[in-house]
Structures
1.
Amino acid sequence: MSDDPASLPSRAAIVGCGVIGAGWASRLHLRGVDISVSDPSPSAPEIFEEVTANAVAAWDALGVDTARRGSVTFAASLAEACEQAELVVESVPERLDIKHSTLAAIDAAAPEGAIIASSTSGFTPSELAEGVERAERLIVGHPFNPVYLLPLVEVVASPATTDEVIERAKAWYRGIGMHPLHVRREIPAHIADRFLEAVWREALWLVNDGVATTEEIDDAIRYGFGLRWAQMGLFETYRIAGGVGGMRHFIAQFGEALSWPWTKLMDTPELTEELIDTIADQSDAQSGHHSIRELERIRDRNLVGFLKVLEEHNWGAGQSMQALRDKAE
Amino acid sequence: MSDDPASLPSRAAIVGCGVIGAGWASRLHLRGVDISVSDPSPSAPEIFEEVTANAVAAWDALGVDTARRGSVTFAASLAEACEQAELVVESVPERLDIKHSTLAAIDAAAPEGAIIASSTSGFTPSELAEGVERAERLIVGHPFNPVYLLPLVEVVASPATTDEVIERAKAWYRGIGMHPLHVRREIPAHIADRFLEAVWREALWLVNDGVATTEEIDDAIRYGFGLRWAQMGLFETYRIAGGVGGMRHFIAQFGEALSWPWTKLMDTPELTEELIDTIADQSDAQSGHHSIRELERIRDRNLVGFLKVLEEHNWGAGQSMQALRDKAE
């Protein structure tokens, strides 16, 4: 996966500039790529400014040069944003009808050699490709918030996608300091969001049944296994737990737990108004003394610290940092 | 939860000295508590030495004083280990019959005022209490590996447990630099392991179906949401994602995904020999170039770095560090 060299697209279009689109925009333009932004919302420029300010603060704290920025244009239309782009990043709301109409418009407007990358967290590229004429250049490039700090991008191709497109996109992602994870098969929600959804479902049950509050659930994560998962995943962690017997010993010891009654709460709790109220009220009690902006700063400050630790040891997410320190090409 | 002051038990018995029991042993005796260890396995002293060496290295790297150690005795019997203990930590294998016979023996041997804390990850204290005469002093205190670095301990009481026992145990956990999370209700696997089990089940499906390898799954965690969860949990992270609309807006946007087909793989994959081989082989390919000891050192070095970052900002798991720097009483 690390064979092809990192590179940068000459120009990128950002279609949809909410928190995710603005995160892409900041990562690309702070890395020196010229970008054109298209979003009909009047708040898009403000979101772009806020997210970019966060990104600049975070990259400054990481000691990454933010002075070589590319140009930023807010285009009058989607077509105008796309017309000179080598990479078009689509981050419109997660509804298939909106995705379809947006991607068809991008396909019609983007130059022949351009790559179209959807930020969808749930849809497969084959689902998205309906109505896209040149589906060979459509991929999913699913990032994680905050996009300007977390290196993961899940890259998913449809059967129509060419290998050249996949490799070019992966090289670009590496060029902006990301870790492209090429997902072997199209499935709904790719890989990471399937885990997030499994945890979210279980967490809703725990709140619904009064077993734990939102704060207690968050503490159960961040004082324990969350610390482990910032640097090793599930399997490597369990490999250690298996001792010198490794994974085989671990599974022999703990695999049986899979058939225990822990798994009984697998249907989906109904999102009643009452449950939503409970969650919103508990979340206010837990975090309401910080504004969202403060929480963003706290989160980013912590992530910056973790990335520095990991870069110092050339491990995990820290290995993606070097690309940000390379001189732009 | 932080009202009662931190304190230390005068003497602790470690019943069961595998990786978890040895982790408890190292945390307690490095904090100055005298311990007696009981484990019939001939490898128990070696596991104790190895885990304690890791713990000393990690605490040294954190700048925590490790010179005030308590005494360590390997007792000839369970009864001998327990006879003067104020706290008995049970960490024998996760089988209910073994737990029952061990806890009954501890109950018979431990002084009247002693607290008995089981490290069980799955059983409820009510399940464990069958056969324990003085069930009012039995709790679950479920830690996370590596016990000498991760602060989380899930504290669970049965209806028989007295409040005094719960508060005394929580103060002791704080005294050894841990974060006691008092679980409101007894349910199988408490809180955190329900999440771990949900992710494990989904991960087995992804490997089983050839969607991802163990390494790809681990990367999907540690390059993305794993970094988030080391400092904020699920709900606080999503509160930020909801923007100024907070949790209510987030749920309105994404709650619907719960009923999407992402959730279809909720039954349990069969742990066939073939699947176990696949996982073990992929894990070897991913991590086999490091020994388990090396992986432990890498993990601990990264965790030490994270804890320093969080302590510097007095946030999350870093808030549990202060107790380790306090002078022992």
Note: The first helix of chain B runs from residue 19 to 30.
2.
Amino acid sequence: MLDFNTAQTPTDALLATFPRHASGVSVITCSDASGNPVGFTATSMTSLGANPPLIMFSVARGASSWEAISQADYVGIHTLGAGNLELAKRMAADHTKRFEGDDWRSGPNGVPVFDCATSVLVAKVQQVINVADNAIVIAQVELGAVGAEDAALLYHQRGYHSPGSAL
Amino acid sequence: MLDFNTAQTPTDALLATFPRHASGVSVITCSDASGNPVGFTATSMTSLGANPPLIMFSVARGASSWEAISQADYVGIHTLGAGNLELAKRMAADHTKRFEGDDWRSGPNGVPVFDCATSVLVAKVQQVINVADNAIVIAQVELGAVGAEDAALLYHQRGYHSPGSAL
């Protein structure tokens, strides 16, 4: 029987649990008020129904991307494959270097697009809900493009993986 | 360069994209107003900061679990491993048979607990946000227990997987 550890803080309980969970990896982008590209690697992106087609993700309100995301009309949602490992790492590292390469362009509605992603959705921000130090962003899909076929990229136990064979 | 398909409906764009994404699998439980166990398999569960320790997930407001979840004070969040494949399938199938076995018990705050899970968090519901036909539930972790070590369970391309080796 599982032993609920009442001596543990709730924060420690959460931190002990989440290494057991795996997440899909995506890259979220937008333009800031000056038209500069902004973006980050997210492990919280999920769909919120297909009709209307909504997606959601969370962002820390202390993150470098927060101000731009909170003001954005449109966001780009990139699903990543195993071949996008370098992109996933770059978009989670020094925010001043994320768009230094020539692997992105300004796409529909000014959303920065990485054409190497396995797919991209362009979605209109509908709600930004502040929750403690984070925010949940809900956006409605307007356009999409599917890219190269590749194994999905996962984040699990502080590392990147792709799915193993079917169970 | 990715080709944004303007002839495609936004719903079709979302549906074409999400097979490229993988998700961690969890089981969410609660008690209904009569004290009966209710629960479902979720692929949307994610943390929303560790301090305070919050989790969130989405649920369809047409789902069998919705009424109970919308009224619950506490929810149980179970991360699953490869060894929980049968549980994941059962909690996504006929809702009248999900608690027929003897593999669950009433845990802290009346939350149904599956001891076979790789971890369980007991969390107090803080906000339920309706968005179109779905809802986002935000809950604050109060207690946790870590179970058997196992490979994480993923959902990807209509099937279950565990992570492959690190990239």
Note: Residues 10-17 of chain A form the longest helix (8 residues).
3.
Amino acid sequence: MEFSFDNFAKEGLHEECGVFGIFSDGTINPAYACYNGLLALQHRGQESCGIAVSDEGVIDYHKDMGLVTEVFNNKILDSLNGQMAVSHVRYSTAGGSVLENAQPLVMRYVKGTLSIAHNGNLTNALEIRRGLEQRGAIFQTTIDSEVICYVIARERLKCHSVEDAVARTMQVIEGAYSLLVMSPRKLIAVRDPHGFRPLCMGKYNDSYVFASESAALDACGAEFVRDVEPGEIVIVDQNGVRSMKPDFGDKKKALCIFEYIYFARSDSFIDGVSVYEARKQAGRILARKYPVEADMVVGVPESGIDAAIGYSEESGIPYEKAIVKNSYIGRTFIKPSQKERMKSVKIKLNPIADKIKGKRVVIIDDSIVRGTTVDRIVTMLKEAGAKEVHMRISSPPFMWPCYYGTDIPSRGELIACNHTIEEITKLSKADSLGYLPVESLREMIHNAPVGFCDGCFTGNYPAPITKETFKGKERGGMNFDENNKKDN
Amino acid sequence: MEFSFDNFAKEGLHEECGVFGIFSDGTINPAYACYNGLLALQHRGQESCGIAVSDEGVIDYHKDMGLVTEVFNNKILDSLNGQMAVSHVRYSTAGGSVLENAQPLVMRYVKGTLSIAHNGNLTNALEIRRGLEQRGAIFQTTIDSEVICYVIARERLKCHSVEDAVARTMQVIEGAYSLLVMSPRKLIAVRDPHGFRPLCMGKYNDSYVFASESAALDACGAEFVRDVEPGEIVIVDQNGVRSMKPDFGDKKKALCIFEYIYFARSDSFIDGVSVYEARKQAGRILARKYPVEADMVVGVPESGIDAAIGYSEESGIPYEKAIVKNSYIGRTFIKPSQKERMKSVKIKLNPIADKIKGKRVVIIDDSIVRGTTVDRIVTMLKEAGAKEVHMRISSPPFMWPCYYGTDIPSRGELIACNHTIEEITKLSKADSLGYLPVESLREMIHNAPVGFCDGCFTGNYPAPITKETFKGKERGGMNFDENNKKDN
Amino acid sequence: MEFSFDNFAKEGLHEECGVFGIFSDGTINPAYACYNGLLALQHRGQESCGIAVSDEGVIDYHKDMGLVTEVFNNKILDSLNGQMAVSHVRYSTAGGSVLENAQPLVMRYVKGTLSIAHNGNLTNALEIRRGLEQRGAIFQTTIDSEVICYVIARERLKCHSVEDAVARTMQVIEGAYSLLVMSPRKLIAVRDPHGFRPLCMGKYNDSYVFASESAALDACGAEFVRDVEPGEIVIVDQNGVRSMKPDFGDKKKALCIFEYIYFARSDSFIDGVSVYEARKQAGRILARKYPVEADMVVGVPESGIDAAIGYSEESGIPYEKAIVKNSYIGRTFIKPSQKERMKSVKIKLNPIADKIKGKRVVIIDDSIVRGTTVDRIVTMLKEAGAKEVHMRISSPPFMWPCYYGTDIPSRGELIACNHTIEEITKLSKADSLGYLPVESLREMIHNAPVGFCDGCFTGNYPAPITKETFKGKERGGMNFDENNKKDN
Amino acid sequence: MEFSFDNFAKEGLHEECGVFGIFSDGTINPAYACYNGLLALQHRGQESCGIAVSDEGVIDYHKDMGLVTEVFNNKILDSLNGQMAVSHVRYSTAGGSVLENAQPLVMRYVKGTLSIAHNGNLTNALEIRRGLEQRGAIFQTTIDSEVICYVIARERLKCHSVEDAVARTMQVIEGAYSLLVMSPRKLIAVRDPHGFRPLCMGKYNDSYVFASESAALDACGAEFVRDVEPGEIVIVDQNGVRSMKPDFGDKKKALCIFEYIYFARSDSFIDGVSVYEARKQAGRILARKYPVEADMVVGVPESGIDAAIGYSEESGIPYEKAIVKNSYIGRTFIKPSQKERMKSVKIKLNPIADKIKGKRVVIIDDSIVRGTTVDRIVTMLKEAGAKEVHMRISSPPFMWPCYYGTDIPSRGELIACNHTIEEITKLSKADSLGYLPVESLREMIHNAPVGFCDGCFTGNYPAPITKETFKGKERGGMNFDENNKKDN
């Protein structure tokens, strides 16, 4: 079999964003803290990034397309002075210049300035936007975060503080949002009532830090304090930190389970659970549910490695690093423009053939989406001489799209919607294939009392999906272009 | 005398913008037409530029800091497909990243998309913005053009077409604006009731083109049709072109006279008058009002040359090109960071010493603002050996700031506000000095029936200046930063 | 304890270069093959890279400072047409613009063009250069590769083919060189008589490929054929491939042992030995020589991981991925310009604290050079709560500088030259410390019959070091600047 | 008639280079002086530029493709410390990356370092290079300046100082060269025995400055001292300045007459003659030789303007600036990739139609090369309504190629070689056409005792042209690529 050239540009899922913010006591530079924090969150978004700082209410910011190390340098960071900051990384899509969609969004409203960094996806953004337009609003981006800004600005007219406006906004917007809001005097961290996306709080001397993942606290030297709770509003200003918990009725706690499986860093702790341990646990469960006689357990780098260590631990089969990943290949990989046929090139991933030859291999990956990667991995191992290849997947089959901020595609593209496990096994050319059972998800997180969202596996969505959102599911925001009316 | 290093970075005045738009019949590519048009208008703004195209109502655009040749290339232009386009060049200020303020502004409102390119300055923008904020509006830029967008979006809710919304908007906004508005189906060109800024219409086969100056029509091969009239709205759509003239009461026609003196290109015709002829005429008037015995007439390149030719023609004194300008020195001139003393360096302008030595020279420049250039020019000529230097200025003394879109500074900085002509003559070291008399301005434009604004010379402002605008006079837009409230 | 900000910018050793070349049969594009090959060799040099192609003897090339993905794009690769190519990656030093030193070197000489890609360091380059200068030679770079070009050009005058000239050159130059030479009609691969640096040969249909490491063959789809032997000259032209082995007397085979320990990729095979297996073997030896009771074995990413797996395998202590590396931090890491104190930030490496807390940890790293990293690793683990930290090093102590192409520094900087193991243990704060014994190096490579150079550990240098080379040991080439005579 | 899109990308001739050097007494920074000097010489070369500084014999340099303002910034200039410097601008060709050919060339030879900046073209470079190759030399560029370096390095072995080596070199090389040579302790300025290219000397306090044109002295504040004489070697070191005049036999003084006509700046003085005055004189001569009744005299900007002023002065016909040049269009002008037909666009040059309409116009340009511009100018004026167009050319017809450093093409491309004046007049559509008579060239330079080369007009070449040079006439250096031998 011959591979196409870009075989191992792994079909992946993408988180939409990461956020990081700080209210400094003067012992830490907000812009540099954000820089370190964003570096630690870079895996959550590689399209664009930005930092907005507030210097006594005067905002300065810098944002651009590209990685954190490409967008920022000493000169820029030194120019971003202030006492507090919010910052953002956004996920990398293919195609056009969408700098307008980079965050933080910075705007002026009746009470001064507002800077917003947002992770998640609203499920009623289109409806709200339509309503605002009917009252004369104009929009300069295609992201739902601008809708949030508008609602806050409007609600601010009806109440006495920006935190009250945020609380009122939370009664209007629906869906997933972990939000950092910077007003002239306050830094406000918000997590939606379901708690779809993670958000935690740290401390550095008397500075307060908020980040999508605890690993970002480590990166700026802050100590982990606690997770922001679903439905909670944490306000930091010169008087210190305080919390509000508006009443949202009975909302199911629903952290995205895929944060543990794939999105988050191994060294993060989310809602009381170690990501690394959860992944190892998934490996252990797979070892129990799908045991096999084999010579080694191998993880597909990087996301399959933790589960492979767990599988090895449980099964006693030795763990080996038999596939090597080239860390110099990033977003810019070049394919030949000529349509020349290339033999099975191993550019991104390369097996250690002499280790694999004649061996029975258990290979572990985090998920199967469209099915275009799995057979390449199996073929690569077989070409390297593996006697048997047993594929284990540390998540259940994807059956449903996600409306809360990840890019799990529509059902038509999901291989598990259109094929049985047997068919997928056959297509993958593996000697056996085992998915993590849906019913083991709770066990994966060590039966911790964490409510989670498994809508992509079960179709049980914790928050209602509007008809427009259902139709408009699309990467990168609301379905703007179809929405173009022809004025007359 | 010793000069500082950047002697001849001529203190200049700057127009704020140039606009160019096209509704194509298919025989001309809108993006390339805009590229040519913007190149021809580059002198009106070197800070940033942008092109927005509409492809059946779907907008694509590209804008960035920099010159037209830096911001655009074939790949970008080829990607901008559509049937119509609006585009913009913005003037170069020092300092920070202000990409957010680049134009055209592109936004979505209740009726689809709206793209706006704006030349001029509103005099009641702050008041309108405050009012909009009181009703929940948010602002993402610091330019008054965003205010115009908002008002159009609001007015659109109350009427039946975008052109009606534009007409209603013109009853709300005050000051200077030559405006191109692109809705999903229409290209609309607007000139404020006073006609402060120029705007003309051209034709290329059945395509309609609008530009700040007629030279930009030449640059894309279009034929000049006519100027857009003050207070006129010209609408182009698939049915052709039509005009609206809302009633604005009795508004004085008030084209900025400084367009003839300095801003516009020599090869443009504005409101029926040739810019080149007006400048030559200014030279002729100076020759009559301030005759002198001399050996040659020299213009300070480039803006003084036309008037110098006119002075030579009227006086019979030979015209000479005795000062050479280095055209490779642009915005990026570097000064030594060491504080070393440099002798009178002639980098930007260099006199032809052997031509000047022992001669009586009439030297003509377009204006004196702060007075920092004039003595350098005189000293340069004297050092080159000139026996006498007679300075003639092809405009009257600047006495008042401009609120309609040029950066004439506050009175404190204007040398003519603080010194008599005699004092200025003495400061300049010239043997004589003559300004164009205010009362000759009409003669300068050959007594053409053109109403003009000479507020900067006379203090007679044709449109009312609000108190906020008066205080807020500042480069680059509204005085936003002082405006930062502290929310609580 | 407080760390400085850039704690974990790991003090590393650097290989000077990687080379890749191809003589194509027409079924593979040489420029794209080089691109893939260089990507696979990027770990050997991140300073600059280049590709030279020969199209019927007409050379075109592109080289620049930066990573392979930064220097090349489709447009450039498509412009590099030809039948054969040589290419190069060079190691990243700090500081000045040294594009002149980028390779391949391309030059014209009496027989047409010559392109050279060179990995290694000559030990008599200065002497040869002096001699050439005495006869009128001029030099445009500071690298010894230019000396090789000169010698080939001179020798070519005395013999009948370029390969003969290369063979004669090998009698003149001394030290380490794996060399690819491209003449108008031939691709020539050369390895010095000691075989200090690796070089292997692969095949893709009837195309011949040469690379510093076998992993680069995988990356372009070529099959491994064999290593180029020490002292061998392999010539490929349209008549196929042939080999020359000039007589060099009795030269000890001396492959750099540090290729196995650190430089090469885990998935490469060098001179018949798997790098991954050698590293695991080092871990196993350490487990036997320095056993300890512990709860987990952890590798310092990436280079300590293979040995950690081996240690775990031999000792039965579980392997854990308890330190996470941020792969987005490259060469461009920014330190704050303010001298603010930062608490122990974990930006590049971050421990999974909840895994480590209260545990006895065996931590494995590949080497200790100056000793500035080891105590940071130990402190990081102790701060994360480790009860005991047992450091194991998968190489012997560095006692001597390297003159053959790696940047092991002078003895004054090597911690093991100035401290006993006990002192180093104490400085590192580890509970125990064990180095791989020098006498186990042969066991590390599974007692394979590979002659190796362990000069950096033993001071036994296989090739003579001239006095000038001894004095001139320095990064980036010959000690040129001190060499500036003052002409008179 | 319809024009192609790039009508007025004027077919021009190009000088190959400009040089600038300084030996500082400490009161002026050499790098910044070079920066200013190169800016003033930018018209002589826009392809690449570079500055090399010598700090007590240690060379640092920076060179790159692009304009002076693009290649240098404060950071780079501040890093270039030293007591003396040489610098260079090179002319802009289309196509490939030829950074290797940028100057100054910096090399190491037996006596330390040598930096060379060269303006001109050798006529026996190929022969010398062949000879050097036969003795083992290698070449890394395709420019003849590298040949000069080699010869100096070789000759230095045979004598006692670098200036003696330069003197000996001048006996070997033939053709055009104005040369700046920087050795560890000396700055040496050289002009070939014919004096083809200009070179002058200035003084700034006790610093000595050398430049291709006197205008570059003005730009750094230096005073003009004198021209370097043909065949002269000027040496500056810490002991001051001295001159050598080796015996070259009877060499005809042969300054390129085209320096006066086109290459040099109007404000330069070359060998005692004002460029501006020479151009005006050419205009006066044309007025006498080809008088005509007309309403105005117009120069094609910029190079035709001086002669137009002279024509006007002599004829009494008024001078008008009736064609406007867009100074924002540089090298990067973009043509539409679509092959759409554009009407006569006036992007680079635009006539002031209302001035021209119905008028008889004398239009003056500096030269006609291929004839592709002249008819466009005439057509442009006629389309603008000119009643008559009388073309006057301020140089004689080009009949022969240039071998001394300008890119006058081969005879096949020269319109005057293949057409009579009558035919050219007809092709140009002008009502009359007059060239400056060859016999008036001496009158043009006011009968100054300047020997000049008019080989391009007469075929009388002052220095012998070798057969190889004759065949190899080509832009950018020696015809290297055809020269590729196939080694065997």
Note: Chain A touches chain B through 47 residues (CB under 8 Å).
